[in-house]
Design brief:
By secondary structure, the chain is of the alpha+beta class. 51% of the residues lie in helices and 15% in strands. The protein has helices at 10-26, 30-36, 42-49, 68-81, 83-103, 106-118, 231-267, 279-308, 317-342, 352-362, 370-383, and strands at residues 123-126, 142-146, 149-160, 167-173, 182-188, 194-199, 209-220, 224-225, 269-270, 273-274. Strand 4 and strand 5 form a beta hairpin. 48% of the residues are buried.
């Protein structure tokens, strides 16, 4: 057994086994979903029936509880079969649901968390705009106060679940104050004056992504998350959790790449023997296993630190940047090496390794680019706040 597995609590091990069994049964057509850019609508209900849509959400409101390691493992196991579905699930529960769970008041949580936890309502997070990416503090979407309502005006792009979402967490500018000018809102699709245009992508094709435009959408004052001007602080806390949870998907792609490549290498005969006997093939497989174990150890430990030391969460931004950066690069290279081992077969759409390769690239872009992760890490070194 790998050392990383010893870090898992018994209930998390059982959860991982249940997710694996679920995916083996329900994800048989995952490659076809990828080809068709399609995610079966009924999958949300099925995921909800076993509690997956409620990860990171309060148990007394129907969720699995605030257990970040459990969420990491759910996304890891699911990403072996479909990184795209795992990303949609993460966007639903972690990026949208958890933000409401953490920043919402009692009334907001009681209204929105139960239908999100069951998968009855699908969630999405709206930050990125056509002209605003890494510099999230410069968002231009506006929320203009008018009586007991806010008038929401602007566009958000690359929104995971955008075309199918019922509930959006939207960040918008409520003033020109550079530090306290952004606020967060819970926006329902049924509020109206919302248009969505589907975006076609290279990877994560089974996960619906869209351009979401708010055309003077009226948002009730009671749907303001936290206080006006607190949006940037809510956003940053949400991004830290996002980077930890979604890094689990990178582990799944590494694991899937290693499993497919090693099995193929044992069966593929060239020059009279299985190609796994050749050292150049062994080097590739050794790299995958080493990266799986190293990133797992770091990520599992980080998720448990987040759970057990809530008072230290604000100090973990560098750590979340590190694991997000390293696991994304490892997943991309593992998929590339798996394609190389499979040769021509790896280049066809009949094997998941090519899907991993396209899907893994997103995690060097989404939730903060690799370059931004490096800047966050370097900033800590520059400030000298690290006890080496």
């Amino acid at each position: 057994m790998l050392i990383s597995k010893l870090l898992l609590r018994e209930e998390v091990v059982e959860l991982a086994s249940a997710v694996k069994e679920f995916c083996e049964r329900e994800f048989k057509d995952a490659l076809e979903w990828d080809r068709q850019e399609y995610m079966p609508p009924e999958l949300w209900k099925k995921m909800g029936e076993i509690g997956l849509t409620g990860m990171m959400l309060d148990s007394d409101l129907g969720g699995l509880g605030d257990d970040l390691l459990a969420s990491v493992v759910i996304l890891e196991e699911m990403s072996v079969y479909s990184p795209a579905v795992a990303m949609s699930l993460g966007a639903h529960a972690v990026l949208c649901g958890y933000v409401i769970n953490r920043a919402g008041n009692k009334k907001q949580k009681e209204k929105y968390i139960p239908p999100i936890a069951t998968g009855e309502k699908i969630g999405a997070l709206c930050i990125t705009e056509p002209e605003v990416g890494s510099d999230a503090a410069s968002i231009k979407t506006k929320a203009i106060k008018k009586g007991d309502r806010y008038i929401l005006r602007g566009s958000k792009i690359f929104i995971t679940n955008g075309p199918v979402a019922d509930i959006f967490v939207v960040y918008a500018r409520t003033s020109d104050d550079p530090k306290r000018g952004i606020s967060a809102f819970i926006v329902e699709k049924d509020f109206g004056n919302i248009s969505v245009e589907k975006i076609h992508k290279m990877g994560m094709r089974a996960s619906p992504t869209g351009l979401v435009t708010f055309n003077d959408t009226e948002v009730p004052e009671e749907n303001l998350l936290g206080s006006e001007g607190e949006g940037i602080y809510i956003m940053m806390g949400g991004l830290d959790v996002e980077r930890i949870a979604l890094s689990g998907s990178n582990l799944g792609m590494i694991k899937g790449s290693l499993d497919i490549a090693s099995n193929y290498a044992k069966e593929r005969i060239q020059f009279g023997q299985p190609i796994i006997n050749y050292q150049l093939i062994q080097e590739k497989l050794a790299y995958m296993l080493a990266q799986l174990e190293l990133n797992r150890l770091y990520l599992y430990h980080l998720a448990e630190v987040w759970r057990n030391y809530p008072e230290s969460r604000k100090k973990l931004r560098t750590a979340t940047a590190i694991v997000k950066m390293t696991s994304a690069r490892a997943a991309l290279r593992a998929a590339e090496e798996a394609i190389q081992i499979l040769g021509g077969y790896g280049y066809t759409t009949d094997y998941r390794v090519q899907m991993y390769w396209r899907d893994a690239k997103l995690y060097e872009i989404g939730a903060g680019t690799t370059e931004m992760m490096k800047l966050l890490i370097a900033r800590r070194v520059k400030e000298g706040f690290i006890d080496l």
